[in-house]
Design a protein that fits this description.
The protein is an alpha/beta fold. The protein contains 21 helices and 16 strands. It is globular. Bound molecules: coenzyme A (COA).
Length: about 550
């Protein structure tokens, strides 16, 4: 099978998994929801965002491989509303009444982390049965963070808007309660700490939904609703008007002198003063379609990341003389480093070439990360690594010290980081290349990716060697048949757990993407990070030389 065929097959599998998330609770519940005259979360989002703008959906495979519906009964992502990039969350009421299960909570935590790190306003489209009651023990205590994050966001001058379309009971009532702006849909929104049965039990009082928590009541009596919407469309229109009045300005100051062209465009209101982007840029010199041919089906085969870079970054243009200025090309050739632009915005790129990271690569990466911090340029990590080199020669040459230097640089760097796992991402190589635990602003995975502590065969082999040595030490005969079965089982399960759907299901990335969409996704991310000021650090940990 050709590389392209294999990648297309994986992309078809990805489409099938995404379709499960889009299908929500399935035909029966979707029909019932529509029959009630209500819109689904993705329909709501489509009406909320600017017409024709891109919506960067996040974690669509959350909960994959668990007992819960793929997507975890909530849609999250970044959308542009009245020209403002906002974090949007939308409960899916067709899945278990929109109740939040443990994956829903993790997915919303991730969305609010992204909003916080990138300084985005948040719009929550609320209709939820609250906590998924059978799994309440896993969500009740950590779930409190959801409400804490809303008010912390507000305090950080990142406004929060809640549009309530239906049920928002008990803990859920604190979503509108904590938000800066609240819109409620007439005859649909129900916001109360306890519904009529609970009130009856607690105090003996007879009540009904509308008087306890209806939209009219909250708009006219309690004051919890700032706006009373006639229907769902009206609510989304009001949501757009709220964002339009946020007086939103991106925080990142221009990193370059303005050209006369910029000034003219500014006067015409086409370019904001706060962007460091070139207003004109060229598409990549090589066709992104070719990315499908590049990634070998067997990740042991190396591929040249320059071929990937040429398909991701801006091509040659009057403002971009060279597409990719490679740094230190002759030193540490297993890691490619250099400068380029994506959608007119400069990035420093670190991309694995031969898979293994040696001391030279680790030192080169450390220096390059320092250089990016010196000039306040975001970093892009393109993973295809089996980790740091092992063996006597390399241990004696200080591979641990050098790997530690690279991890130190990645950990303490304060320019925004973006990561894309193209192929392998194993062992400490995952850490050095800014894996999930190192908090890149965004991390996306290609369907060709694999990530684990080490390769499945190596892991099974290590376990076997350890077990054999233990048996010998006890003077016992080693069970060869048992060993073969154990290796097979371990290899298969580690293989499964290292695949993108599984990792994405665990929220270890922000989504699995089609390699051909990478440039667009990175372009959105680079624009999003400009919402919050950043500057590079000159304070790293002690470098062990
Ligand atoms: N936890 C687990 N499952 C829930 C749930 C919850 N909080 N809320 C709803 N569900 C399930 C229902 O059991 C039902 O499952 P089924 O179809 O497999 O039988 C499915 O979700 C749809 O619920 P249904 O009541 O038919 O939907 P609805 O749209 O008519 O009503 C609610 C939705 C949310 C108004 C209603 O289900 C409800 O009041 N749920 C409980 C709300 C609550 O008090 N939560 C506690 C907050 S901490």
């Amino acid at each position: 099978m050709s590389n392209r065929e294999a990648m297309l097959e994986k992309l078809a599998d990805l489409d099938a998994e995404h379709a499960k998330a889009v299908a929500g609770g399935g035909e029966k519940y979707v029909e019932r929801h529509h029959a009630r005259g209500k819109l689904l979360p993705r329909e709501r989002i489509e009406l909320l965002v600017d017409e024709g703008s891109a919506f960067l959906e996040l974690s669509p495979l959350a909960g994959w491989g668990s007992d819960f519906t793929v997507g975890a009964s909530v849609v999250t992502g970044i959308g542009v509303i009245e020209g403002v990039e906002c974090m949007i969350t939308a409960n899916d009421p067709s899945v278990k009444g929109g109740a939040s299960n443990p994956w829903t909570v993790k997915k919303i935590f991730r969305a609010s982390q992204i909003a916080e790190e990138n300084g985005l306003p948040t719009v929550a489209l609320v209709e939820s049965g609250g906590a998924d009651l059978p799994t309440q023990k896993e969500i009740f205590i950590p779930g409190g963070k959801l409400f804490r994050d809303i008010t912390r966001s507000s305090a950080a001058k990142q406004p929060t808007v809640a549009i309530v379309f239906g049920n928002s009971t008990a803990g859920g009532a604190y979503v509108p309660g904590m938000s800066d702006y609240t819109v409620m849909v007439k005859e649909q929104a129900k916001v109360f700490l306890g519904g009529p049965p609970l009130v009856k039990m607690a105090t003996g009082e007879e009540s009904d939904d509308e008087s306890l928590g209806g939209a009219e009541m909250h708009a006219r009596v309690s004051g919890l609703a700032d706006y009373l919407a006639e229907d769902e469309h009206d609510a989304l229109r009001i949501g757009r008007r709220i964002v339009a009045r946020l007086n939103w300005r991106k925080a990142t100051p221009s990193r370059r002198s303005l050209t006369p062209q910029d000034v003219n465009q500014r006067r015409l209101g086409e370019v904001t003063a706060s962007t460091n982007a070139d207003s004109a840029y060229a598409e990549p010199d090589a066709d992104p379609e070719g990315l499908l041919d590049l990634i070998p089906t067997d990740l042991k085969e190396p591929f040249d990341p320059r071929e990937v870079i040429a398909r991701l970054v801006d091509g040659v243009s009057p403002t971009n003389g060279v597409a990719f200025d490679e740094f230190k090309p002759l030193y540490g050739p297993s890691l490619v480093t250099g400068w380029a632009k994506i959608h007119g915005r400069q990035v420093g790129i670190l991309a694995n070439a031969q898979g293994v990271l040696f001391s030279e690569e680790a030192q080169k990466a450390t220096q390059f990360i320092q250089l990016a911090n010196q000039v306040d340029v975001p970093l892009l990590f393109l993973h295809n690594t089996t980790g740091y080199m092992v063996g006597k020669e390399y241990e004696q040459g200080g591979i641990i010290k050098h790997g530690a230097m690279m991890i130190n640089a990645v950990s303490n760097s304060t320019v925004p980081h973006l990561s894309v796992i193209m192929g392998a991402s194993y062992g400490a190589g995952n850490y050095g290349m800014n894996g999930r635990a190192y908090d890149p602003r965004f991390l996306f995975t290609w369907p060709s990716a694999k990530s684990a502590v080490m390769g499945p065969a190596q892991l099974a082999g290590v376990l076997s060697i350890v077990a054999r040595a233990a048996a010998e030490a006890k003077g016992k005969e080693y069970d060869e048949a048992g060993d073969a079965a154990m290796r097979e089982f371990i290899e298969a399960s580690v293989e499964e757990q290292s695949l993108p759907f599984f990792l994405s299901g665990m929220l270890y990335d922000d989504g699995v993407i089609d390699p051909r969409d990478t440039r667009t996704v990175l372009g959105i991310c680079l624009s999003v990070i400009e919402n919050k000021a950043y500057s590079g650090t000159d304070r790293f940990g002690v470098f062990r030389m």
